[in-house]
Every structure is written in C-alpha cells, then in structure tokens.
Design goal:
Layout (H helix, E strand, L loop, with lengths): L1 H26 L9 E10 L5 E9 L14 E7 L4 E3 L23 E11 L6 E9 L2 E8 L3 H4 L3 H7 L18 E4 L6 E3 L5 E8 L40 H9 L2 E8 L4 E3 L3 E3 L5 E9 L3 E10 L4 E10 L1
Parallel strand pairs: 9-16
Antiparallel strand pairs: 1-2, 2-5, 3-4, 3-6, 6-7, 8-10, 10-14, 11-13, 11-15, 12-14, 15-16
Length: about 325
C-alpha cells in the first residue's frame, strides 16, 4: 500500500516537472516559419496643414520566413465607423488612393518587429472614424485599428519615436525637442525604372539631416547581439527582446555620422540583392549609389529609408523587371 502510494506520488511529481519543463521550452521556442503577422498601429502625428499622419508597423512572428502577401483580401485597408467599429464609410475621407485597399502598406514582410514602417495621411475631420489594416497569413487574420481618439495615448512625437526605437530622450524636456526628420529623395528618377533579371541596376538617393540627435554616444555595437543574415530593418529591430536590446541595422551606420540610408525590398515577387543595403552619410547632405539585382521578372517597389537614429523618412522607386 505504502509503495503504491509512494509510486503514485512520485509519478505525479514527475508529471508536474515534465509539464513545467515543456511549458518553459514552449515559451522559449523561436518560431522560424509557420507563424502569423500582426499589423500594428503606432500612433498619429498632426501635420502643419491640419491633417494627420497615421503610422503603422508590424510584427512578423517568424524569424526566418519572409512572407510575400499581395494586396487583396489578405492584405488590405478599409475605413470603418469608429462608433460601431464596423462597416465601411465614405472612402473619400482619405486624402490619397480614395476607395482603394492600397494605402501604401508593404507586401513583403521582414522578420520580427518593424516599427513606423509607413504612414497614411487622413484629413482633420477623420476624428470618429477608424482606419483598419487587415493581414491574413497561415490561416490567421489580424488587424490594426488606427484612430485619432485618445490623443494622450496615440499622439507621437520625437520622444515617442526615440523611446520606441531604443534611443531614449537623453533627459531632454519637451521644449528641447528640436530634432527634425531627415530628408531623402531619389536622384535621376523620372517615373519607373526597368531592368532584366540578374543585371545590376544603379539606384541613387540624396539625403541630409539637421545633425540631431547626432552620432550615438558610447559603444552601442558591443551591446548588440549579432545580426542573423544581416537583415535590413525598418525603423525597428529583429532582436528577441525590447527595442533597446534589439539589433537595429540603421543604428550601425548612424553611430558613425548620425545619418544612415537603408535599402529594402518593399514589394515584389522575387529576391532583391543590394550591394550596399546600409550606408552612413554626411548629415550636411550627400548623394550615394547602391546597386540592386533581381532574381525574376515582375514589378517591384524598392524603398530607401533615411534614419537619423530617431526619425525615419522614406522614398520609393518602382522597378519593372522584364
């Protein structure tokens, strides 16, 4: 009787240990493939003309999967009534691409958390409405709901950008926030570019900044975990923890001069290889050239981000590969 009771007790303890152990392992599992994508509303900024820019990013829960999700039911925007939280409303409430599911969102998704990836401009009277981004991947549908309500929560400024991107506020007060976003533009581009698979295409951009906040103090490189596959990162990170400990590619170049340009594939069917995906620039203004090659034909959108360590500004170019 005693032996059977002791055996049952020991088995129960063993079962608990196994369950706890398996739970720990599951919690620490890094999913490389097969996971969903969560679109994220980052907040909004008020523009000089009274309109607003809503900022969106995303979390690709995979570490090694780069989903390509074309525009359509699996990657779309709609305007909804903020009161009922459902149902379409007048699409003319948007200032650009009125009535379209395309609001400039990516169709190619880099791994992990990508912050402040793109902005959508809405008018001042958009208050009370919602801008909803829906993404479906691996059978899971997730949404991000953009709103102009609760300004104390969703309004973003330099302090919010800096805190989210791991730069912090450096102890400054609101009055001392003088940093302006960098400026970037394509050079020598009129309309779309064209090339053929395998050929190298020269891409030129000009970028400048106000010099703030400047090169990052301290040896940030030694604090960052190694970059897997040297992934380009859009205003965020691919690390496993908070943005402050994530690997932020743009910071590697911005550490040197305070301004960096990163090239990424934003849309397109095949692989794109950049000979120089990230480069540091002179904040006073500099033109740089990167070469891109494409694995297959199709229409691509390439995006160049100028990054001063706090703000990112982007410029796009469409490339038709025949």
């Amino acid at each position: 009787m005693f032996n059977r009771a002791r055996l049952a007790f020991s088995s129960a303890i063993l079962l608990i240990v196994v369950l706890l152990s398996s739970g720990t392992v599951t919690a620490q599992t890094l999913h490389r493939f097969g996971q969903s994508i969560q679109p994220i509303f980052e907040g909004f900024e008020k523009n000089i003309d009274g309109s607003y820019t809503m900022w969106f990013g995303y979390l690709n829960r995979n570490y090694n999967e780069y989903p390509d999700i074309p525009l359509g039911d699996s990657n779309s925007f709609q305007v909804a009534d903020g009161v009922a939280n459902a149902g379409p409303v007048d699409p003319s409430l948007l200032l650009d691409n009125a009535g379209s599911i395309d609001r400039g969102q990516p169709t190619y998704f880099y791994p992990r958390r990508q912050q402040f990836v793109f902005g959508v401009q809405v008018p001042a009277d958009f208050v009370g409405k919602e801008l909803v981004w829906t993404v479906n991947h691996h059978g899971e549908t997730h949404t991000a709901v953009g709103t102009l309500e609760r300004e104390n929560i969703w309004s973003v400024d330099e302090g919010v950008w800096g805190a989210n991107r791991g730069r912090g506020t450096n102890g400054r007060t609101e009055i001392e926030y003088a940093n302006q976003p960098p400026i970037i533009r394509m050079v020598g581009v009129e309309g779309q570019l064209s090339t053929t698979p395998g050929n190298s295409l020269a891409l030129r951009v000009f970028a400048r900044d106000d010099g703030l906040p400047g090169a990052y103090e301290g040896n940030r490189r030694s604090e960052m975990e190694p970059l897997p596959n040297a992934l380009p990162v859009v205003g965020g990170g691919i690390g496993r923890n908070s943005p402050k400990s994530q690997s932020i590619v743009n910071y590697i170049a911005a550490d040197e001069t305070g301004l960096a340009v990163s090239w990424i594939k934003y849309r397109g069917p095949g692989q794109v290889n950049f000979d120089t995906a990230v480069a540091s620039l002179d904040p006073a203004g500099q033109e740089i050239t990167a070469a891109a090659s494409f694995s297959q034909s199709g229409t691509y959108v390439l995006r160049a981000y100028a990054d001063d360590g706090i703000y990112t500004t982007y410029s796009d170019v469409t490339v038709v590969v025949r």
